[in-house]
Amino acid sequence: MVLLNGQTLTFEEVNRVLFDEVKVGFSDESLRKVEESRKAVEKIVEDERIVYGITTGFGKFSDVYIGKEDVETLQLNLIRSHACGIGEPFPEVLSRAMLLLRANALLKGFSGVRPVVIERLLDLVNAKIHPVIPQQGSLGASGDLAPLSHLALALIGEGDVFYKGEKVPALTALTKEGLFPITLTAKEGLALINGTQAMTAMGVVAYLEAEKLAYQSEYIAAMTIEGLRGIIDAFDEDIHLARGYREQVEVARRIRDHLADSQLTTRQGELRVQDAYSIRCIPQVHGATWQALNYVKEKLEIEMNAATDNPLIFNNGEKVLSGGNFHGQPIAFAMDFLAIAMAELANISERRIERLVNPQLNDLPPFLSPEPGLQSGAMIMQYAAASLVSENKTLAHPASVDSIPSSANQEDHVSMGTIGSRHAHQVITNARRVLAIETICAMQAAEIRGTDLMAQATKQFLKEAREVAPFIAKDRIFSNDIEAVTSWLKGASLPAGQSSKDHSRTKA
């Protein structure tokens, strides 16, 4: 079981909850903090103090006083009116992540909710009841209001959920699991939706997928090096130490490790003096992507354990402060950076594909065709990869540089972080397909050279990939191969022993 306390949630724990479906609970100490802040909210209501979101309306309505007899209606109206999400729903794993992260944020004890709200969030996680949450409709400031309102609907028995493979009314799923809808009281509706958990959940899942793909890209690139009889000298440690970027040094080391016993690599001057940049600069480009991943991971780890609603309650209610922790700018920047970094991982992969299939750039059969001319081989696979990297270039345009005022200009600067996170995930999905195409082409080239000459590490990688995409002995519907290898990359475990001193191994 993973125990939440609002302070120390890690990627490894999130990974276990999302993909291994480990149960979740909370620590007794964190619950004490929750109870203390709840008492403060109840006193504010009883004393009829004017405090934003507790005894006032929301946004532009912050100057409208709400009497204590209407606080429950206020919270119910808030959830219903703000459930304006549109478009396709987030995948279930994203809904699950939002439940987990929102519960963890509330456990910090600054939000003033009753323990039952947190308990019900975790009940949904543990029962695998996942709210249906539309992907579009969040500006990424004032919290992810629309998406999180759809999450909150499930707690009050409204809206739809995913349950046992079907979309059903929330009340139906709650009843089958012996759970009851809760009635939201003062502050609780606002506490549930005033946060960054949609963009953060999307960011966490995107990061886990990106980290895994970045490791896999090094095996794929190493196999391409063998297929092109690349020059191993470019990966000599001294070159990379001379520049000084840790991530660059690590990528070069891993490539050397993958190719340590290869008989297909060459030395400078043996066949050519230098390789093209897409081969020679793998450590520099992939290393820069790892730098971005490290930045993204750091920001997400902070946000996973952050109090992001408004107002926040301190000193047992002596201090109740309105601020802007719901503003998603830190995650918006991180998601834009992630999209750019992964777009470049795909970009350099597509250039390696071109070098594998272009007969003017290698001594392999044109387009790796088994019968050039009569059979086209991998010709159009390169087209597909080029299309994907071009699409990524548009998706990588920063969402965070945009803003639009809302709530009658009270909320006059927003982050668009949720849009950025969705774009980053789509870039990663596209990048995985590009790397699947490189895998197919690199395997073909390496087998033409001779698998008996390959390094043990790349030979094992090829062996596993060949189970889903056979050797190209004649033209076939290659779309099926691309999707098969893409699915394999997404679901496969990293090769045995793959890890880094500086990067945690993850499953996604």
UniProtKB/TrEMBL annotation:
Localization of this protein: Cytoplasm
SUPFAM superfamilies: L-aspartase-like
Xref: Pfam families: Lyase_aromatic (PF00221)
Signal peptide: none
Cited PROSITE patterns: PAL_HISTIDASE (PS00488)
GO molecular function annotation: histidine ammonia-lyase activity
GO biological process: L-histidine catabolic process to glutamate and formamide; L-histidine catabolic process to glutamate and formate
Keyword Cell cycle: no
2,3-didehydroalanine (Ser) modifications at: S142
Positions bearing the 5-imidazolinone (Ala-Gly) cross-link: A141-G143
InterPro entries xrefs: Aromatic_Lyase, Fumarase/histidase_N, HutH, L-Aspartase-like, Phe/His_NH3-lyase_AS
Reaction catalysis annotation: L-histidine = trans-urocanate + NH4(+)
Keywords attached to this entry: Cytoplasm, Histidine metabolism, Lyase
Family indicated by similarity: Belongs to the PAL/histidase family.
PANTHER family (UniProt xref): HISTIDINE AMMONIA-LYASE
HAMAP family: His_ammonia_lyase
Name by which UniProt lists this protein: Histidine ammonia-lyase
